[in-house]
TrEMBL record:
The keyword Lipid metabolism does not apply. It comes from the Bacteria. It comes from Neorhizobium phenanthreniclasticum. Residues 138-162 are annotated as: Disordered. This is C-type cytochrome, methanol metabolism-related. Keywords: Heme, Iron, Metal-binding. Residues 29-133 form the Cytochrome c domain. NCBIfam families: 4cys_cytochr. The keyword Heme applies. It holds the Pfam family Cytochrome_CBB3. InterPro entries: C-typ_cyt_methanol_metab-rel, Cyt_c-like_dom, Cyt_c-like_dom_sf. Residues 144-156 have a biased composition (Basic and acidic residues).
């Protein structure tokens, strides 16, 4: 399945096959194109970054975008948006914000590039929402999580300035 954005640009919709983890760098998984992705074990254990993304999403994003990325009357369902949004676009919108005007309605996504509680965890949030978008994980708090890798601890300390 592909989505036509304009007459000259077509993006393939994300799905479980495209989102499949093919490499692992210290507990962080990447797809064949090098984009961050999730890893679900047979026993239901999610990788650390998916779990962290769930926590970070529900601390800063769900008030507008609804629980589990399902949307609200105020902001769109990110589980739908991430089906056709690439990683770089996601990072740009979260960092810089976005304003849409149409149909007599204005929607504004504020910039979070200066909010360390979001900025330092943008990959985690992306990974969680990607897992939700391709039906890789169900709604709700993941019941089991992998341990926090040292690389995640180091990145967090570096970004948060501790």
């Amino acid at each position: 399945m592909s989505i036509v954005i304009s007459s000259s640009i077509t993006f393939a919709a994300d799905d479980k096959q495209k989102a499949a983890a093919v490499t692992d760098e210290d507990g962080k998984y990447f797809d064949a194109d090098g984009n961050p992705t999730f890893k679900l074990q047979d026993d239901g254990t999610v990788d650390w970054y998916t779990f962290s993304g769930y926590r970070r999403y529900h601390s800063d994003c769900h008030t507008c975008h609804g629980p589990d990325g399902m949307g609200s009357s105020y902001a769109p369902a990110l589980v739908n948006s991430l089906k056709t949004m690439d990683y770089a676009t996601f990072l740009s919108i979260v960092a810089e914000g976005r304003k849409n005007v149409g149909g007599g309605k204005e929607n504004v996504m504020p910039a979070f590039g200066n909010n360390k509680n979001v900025y330092c965890y943008m990959d985690d949030i992306y990974i969680y929402l990607r897992a939700r978008a391709v039906d890789g994980i169900p709604r709700g708090r993941p019941p089991k999580k992998a341990d926090k890798p040292q690389a995640a601890k180091d990145q967090e300390a570096s970004c948060m300035g501790s």
